[in-house]
Amino acid sequence: MKATYMYGAGDVRIENVPDPVIQQPTDAIVRVVRSCVCGSDLHPYHSMQHSGAGRPMGHEMIGIVEDLGSAVSTLKRGDFVIAPFAFQDNTCVFCREGFQTSCIHGGWYGNTEVGGLQAELARIPQADGSLVSVPGIDERNELLPSLLTLSDVYLTGFHAAHMGQVSAGKTVTVIGDGAVGLSAVLASRQLGAERIILMGRHRSRTDLGIEFGATDVVAERGEGGIAKVMELTRGEGSHVVLEAVGHMPAYEQAYGVVRPGGVISRVGVPQYEEAPVGFGSLFGKNATLTGGPAPVRAYMEPAIQQVLNGQINPGRVFDRSVTIDGVPAGYRAMNNRDALKVLVTF
Amino acid sequence: MKATYMYGAGDVRIENVPDPVIQQPTDAIVRVVRSCVCGSDLHPYHSMQHSGAGRPMGHEMIGIVEDLGSAVSTLKRGDFVIAPFAFQDNTCVFCREGFQTSCIHGGWYGNTEVGGLQAELARIPQADGSLVSVPGIDERNELLPSLLTLSDVYLTGFHAAHMGQVSAGKTVTVIGDGAVGLSAVLASRQLGAERIILMGRHRSRTDLGIEFGATDVVAERGEGGIAKVMELTRGEGSHVVLEAVGHMPAYEQAYGVVRPGGVISRVGVPQYEEAPVGFGSLFGKNATLTGGPAPVRAYMEPAIQQVLNGQINPGRVFDRSVTIDGVPAGYRAMNNRDALKVLVTF
């Protein structure tokens, strides 16, 4: 099969590799129908050290079950499934508490043990917990892009809003106009926020943000951006800040605009380990810092219903489509900001 | 009057200074009945640069109203009052949201504009918002020590537990066996926690912690302490961690023992600005970091009732009593850990 590998910064290639096979009785093999490129894939695209073996890429996917290990009980061949971007048994103590990305038996795609999902076929560990079937969907369904966003991007935005305790009457500031940021806008609207300030400077993206529910757009960054949000909130600051970037300037903007007693919820994978948290940043104003890798499995069923009944259309974040051979060009387009988010068709 | 001043690390003196007077129509003058020394007073006691003018000390107090500005409407002379450790109007937008330590018209005691409360008399700004009267209490009441803890220490422990979302069925780890840590144990018990692990190594203090509701005591620190808490929680970690110290090793213990999806709530004033918050500490396991200066005014009325009806006896944290002239010795005793918390009588 064809699969995507990264060999270093800027070096993405499509390789012919052996088809994956069942290794554990809890595995499934899925034929990928749609995959995509994630904003977080751009972090190694910028900084990865050269690797002779390469790193299999991709963690978002919808597809059709091709084969099942003997212990898988909730799926059958031919099922249309969504794969959350991390795998999990969905039964352990942390899964039951709604934090499936910390599953005791779970893990991540895209390494030597578990391949990536920007590929024609995928081995899915812990298939009963890691695949969610959606009856009545076929490969030509127009909802495929939106269903694919439930693998990661939309529900990552939703996780930000959920952990940030977005609710009616609160002012929400979303930092970042990438696909996760726009998804956080859409999710905040679903959770009842009336005032949603989107910080971003790419007009085509912030326009989609407005369609998703943003009430204000702030194009300025840094101190100027903070001043603008403070002005929009009568000097009070934002109840909730959803940080969908992962770089330090976004974190600094977040604690600059959060209101006393407010919440900063991060879903952009932090590209830093240390950050200000003392009296001058978080502590002095009782600001809460939360967020992490989204346990999308926890939010899947209601979101599928919202997509199927047309209440949300998060698939609008896809503005370019490539085949598997076009994936390297897709990375380039996202890296150059020519594309917001790239869909991969098979 | 006599008042306490600090002139540098280790240098606390009692000075004769002019009595405070009404400066604003919203002020009150209160004759102090009980004050005390706070763990946070020990931070400058360790590190303050020499100051020729000195810094007035103390922010905890109960007393009797002596004089009132013309705009004060809810108090009268002779009222017995509790002063929260920060002053506030208790009407601004942040006060209404329950974060009175961020009051737009509020501030802190112990500076050139507003004196300290380890003194015979105190000027209280924004008196309607900053003093809570307790009818039927006189200067000989046996509940005075517990009422004094509502000025700061007990309700700071309560704030930690409240922000940490302590509730029935959760495991709570309290880091620090000082008076705030022990208060956090007592508050966690009030909020329904059944398993309360107290990390501290001073036997007389942890014994009081057990009386306050701790179910386990971990005397080890650092990696050993983390390992012990993980062992006590079947390798899962603690749902809530209440950090009542403020130094980096306590923060490191906190993220070491917090469970995926758990909450670290800090009330020890951080003696650092930068700290780990990235994938390896908070983000990877969706840990939440919260806390800050306690808005004790928000919690005052129900806590007064709990003290008056004997449900809680937080005044047990006081294990030494001094007069105003004995305050420097009280600092020394707390600094040497000879005393847990020092009461000042007048």
UniProtKB/TrEMBL annotation, chains A, B:
Keywords attached to this entry: Metal-binding, Oxidoreductase, Zinc
Signal peptide location: none
Taxonomy, superkingdom: Bacteria
InterPro entries in UniProt: ADH-like_C, ADH-like_N, ADH_Zn_CS, GroES-like_sf, NAD(P)-bd_dom_sf
Residue ranges constituting the Alcohol dehydrogenase-like C-terminal domain according to the UniProt record: 179-292
The protein, known as: Threonine dehydrogenase-like Zn-dependent dehydrogenase
UniProt family annotation: Belongs to the zinc-containing alcohol dehydrogenase family.
Cofactor(s) the protein requires to work: Zn(2+)
Limits of the Alcohol dehydrogenase-like N-terminal domain: 25-133
Lineage of origin: Bacteria, Bacillati, Actinomycetota, Actinomycetes, Micrococcales
